[in-house]
Amino acid sequence: MAKHHPDLIMCRKQCGIAIGRLCEKCDGKCVICDSYVRPSQLARVCDECNYGSYQGRCVICGGAGISDAFYCKECCQCEKDRDGCPKIVNLGTARTDLFYERLLSAGGGRIGPGGRWFQDGNAIKLLQTYK
After folding, report:
1. Are 14 and 46 in contact (CB under 8 A)?
2. Which end of the chain is more exposed for a tag (fewer CB within 10 A), N or C?
3. d(Cα 86, Cα 101) in Å, to the nearest integer?
């Protein structure tokens, strides 16, 4: 996913002993290049990305992890497996835009000046200003 979406940011801190996990949707993908062929080395994540409620979560999308994450043979040969923690730390613009589109279509309201949501005269402040 990170290869096809350049706005996604990886953690890249020094890896710990925790093994990265993948959800059912992302199962079998290389963590770096999304390849499904020749998994070779386990992907390890840093201690911060595996702490508390993040423990056992998917490295790519954040869902419930069911299998171990691997790097493909090509990424290991290019030494991309040594760049640090591969966990995606932000949502990306596509998922953020989807949130705001759903918000606008479901409520039937509008976003006014200052990034405020207006519906039936009540103003609910959004998490961030939509531009």
Report:
1. yes
2. C
3. 29
d(CA 99, CA 84): 30
| Closest to 76 in 3D by CA, of 28, 20, 37 | 37
Q: Residue 97: which residues within 8 A CB-CB, separation 6 or more?
A: none
Ramachandran sector of residue 79 (left: φ over 0; alpha: ψ -120 to 50; beta: rest): left
Question: Minimum mean pLDDT among 32-46, 65-79, 91-105: which range?
Answer: 91-105
Per the listing, tokens 């040594």 go with: 82
CA dihedral 58, 43, 48, 88 (to 10 degrees): -50
- Whole-model pTM over 0.85: no
Outline where the chain has alpha helix (H): 73-77, 93-107
CA 126 to chain centre: 22
Q: Kindly report, residue by residue over 48-90, the tens digit of the pLDDT.
A: 999 999 999 999 989 999 999 999 999 999 999 999 999 998 8
Looking at residue 1, what is its pLDDT?
58
